[in-house]
Amino acid sequence: MSREFTMAAQHMSPEEFRRHGKQVIDWIADYLASVESYPVMSQVKPGDIRAALPAAAPEDGEGFEAVMADLERVILPGITHWQHPAFLAYFPANASGPAILGDLISSGLGVQGMLWVTSPACTELETMVVDWLAGLLGLPPHFRTDGRGGGVIQDSASSACLVALLAALHRAGGGRVTREGIDRPYTIYVSSQTHSSLERAARIAGLGASGVRVVDVDPRTLAMDPAHLDALLSEDPHPAMVCATVGTTSTTAVDPVPAIGEVCRRHGVWLHVDAAYAGVAAVCPELRWLNAGVTEYADSYSTNPHKWLLTNFDCTVLWLADRGPLLEALSSMPEFLRNAATAAGSVVDYRDWQIPLGRRFRALKLWAVIRWYGAEGLRAHIRSCVALAGEFASWVAADPGFEVHEPHPLGLVCLRPRWEGREPEEADAATLALMERLNASGDLYLTHTKAGGRVLLRLAVGSPATERRHLEQVWERIRTEAAALTPRSSRSAASRTE
Ligand SMILES: *Cc1c(COP(=O)(O)O)cnc(C)c1O
User: Fold this and answer.
1) Distance of CA 26 to the CA centre of its chain
2) 3-state secondary structure at position 147
3) Under 8 Å CB-to-CB from 159, ≥6 apart: which residues?
4) How many helices, marked H, and strands, marked E, lie in the chain?
5) Span from the CA of 135 to the centroid of ligand 1 (angstroms)
6) In the CATH scheme, what is the code of domain 112-361?
7) Are 155 and 314 in contact (CB under 8 A)?
């Protein structure tokens, strides 16, 4: 339905905004209240959504009701429900009421916070909230902005590691890289378990994939081997950065940061610690062991409140022990940005801490989350996920037909049916077929990984909506579907050996 226009542009009036805004809030509240009733994983085929939408933009404006109607009719079927209690795939991207509202206020203000002067509160609230978070997680005081270091909100962990790499390159090259470009074959060190964003960061920064050196891991724990790192660094004249991971994406393996840090210090190499998923769990004192070595050795450290800390995507926090190399690597001052506050050196300009110039006011949602939950509320959320994941793992471990990958210290459990009597390749294919069946059912959503050469199902507990009963149902489904994929002959063979 098109609207009659009497003016050149028909802006939404404050009264119209109020009316539609209330409808939208009601819609989101209803959605979250009923999210459990949808199939977790979208069941559409490639092109379905596009085909249901008009090929060209409307010539005349339409009422907002038309948008809401298409949201129900076209968009929702193409949504995979990340806030569903049985969404157990990847890592969570959990959301919460205060985060949604904080983000909405940020949209309402429409601030572009590239410089302090473009909205002082955008910068100063961010500085305060990342300092708060450093305190909540037990990170060292030198990460605070009133020391040599500082924290900054980035869009993603991928950006955080790229920015850390640029600072590391600046330091490794004694400032030359900023002036002359990549003048030497600089390298970065990762393990086979490091997130793929590190390799991409090396490619983006101009080191090439050949500048990425892969350090061995312990075959059981999948944690990086510091002795092998030491040996590789001894042969390398131009190492720029080592990335240690606390909570790998595949299995939440934890690299030995104290030992890796000691090696980095001896070789004078920048240590970045990627704790994208696991870092926020250090809000719980009993999980502070996750921070081992960070205070002593990390040059940079990042974690994602947008994964497990109830803050809507996107919100990654990157901290630096010394912000100098980062600012030297990234700052610029074109004429159109000159202003008195920056010139006086009395303010933080976060555009010098990131790749883009412009930036959203993301601190509002993190601030809203921390104030709404308080430290105790955040701890309760993490603890409940860890406890549920532990319980789930115990059910799997008690079933002789299944195997659990150990250790599983946080919210992620990796498992596989044993598929007695099958060759490894055949068994892996069966595990993948099982996953396809489970996901196609719409009742749950899992992803997979490969560890120790075998395919494992990954089940990541992280949604605030997930309760014990959901996991009980999920476990029942996994057992039933696995049994359906087991030929009768081997089923009786398996039961004979029990
Ligand atoms: C998820 C993850 C990333 C990437 O996070 P984005 O914020 O999506 O870029 C990086 N490292 C680890 C260990 C992760 O688990």
Assistant:
1) 28
2) coil
3) 316, 354, 355
4) 18, 11
5) 22
6) 3.40.640.10
7) yes
- Say if domain 370-497 classifies as CATH 3.90.1150.10: yes
Q: Whose CA is nearest to atom 15 of ligand 1?
A: 249
Residue 415 CB neighbour total at 10 angstroms: 23
Residue 2 C-alpha to ligand 1 middle, in angstroms? Answer: 43
Question: pLDDT per residue over 134-180, tens digit each?
Answer: 999 999 999 999 889 999 999 999 999 999 999 999 999 998 888 88
pLDDT for residue 489 is more than 80: no
Domain ranges of the chain: 112-361, 370-497
Structure tokens at 438: 């489970």
Residue nearest to atom 5 of ligand 1 (CA): 157
Question: For the packed helices 363-397 and 97-109, what is the interaxial angle rounded to 10 degrees?
Answer: 150
357-397: per-residue pLDDT in tens? Answer: 999 999 999 999 999 999 999 999 999 999 999 999 999 99
428 Cβ contact partners less than 8 Å away, ≥ 6 residues apart: 454, 455
Q: What is the pLDDT of residues 199-230, one digit of tens each?
A: 999 999 999 999 999 999 999 999 999 999 99
Beta bridge partners of 215: 191
Positions of E strands within 53-114 = none
**449, 455, 452, 377: which is closest to 412 by C-alpha?**
449
pLDDT tens, 231-261? 999 999 999 999 999 999 999 999 999 999 9
Ligand 1 atom closest to residue 90's alpha carbon, by position in its atom list:
1
> pTM for this one?
0.95
Give the residues surrounding ligand 1 with Cβ less than 6 Å away: 91, 156-158, 195, 197, 245, 248-249, 274, 276-277, 304, 316
Specify burial of residue 262 (Cβ count, 10 A radius: 0-12, 13-18, 19+). middle
Output the CA 96–ligand 1 centroid distance in Å: 20
Cα 349 to its chain centre, rounded Å, is: 25
Work out whether strand 270-274 and strand 239-245 pair parallel, antiparallel, or are unpaired: parallel
For ligand 1, the distance from its centroid to the CA atom of residue 498, given in whole angstroms, is: 41
pLDDT band at 496 (very low <50, low <70, confident <90, very high): very low
Cα 247–chain centre separation: 11
Distance (angstroms) between ligand 1 centre and the Cα of 50 equals 29
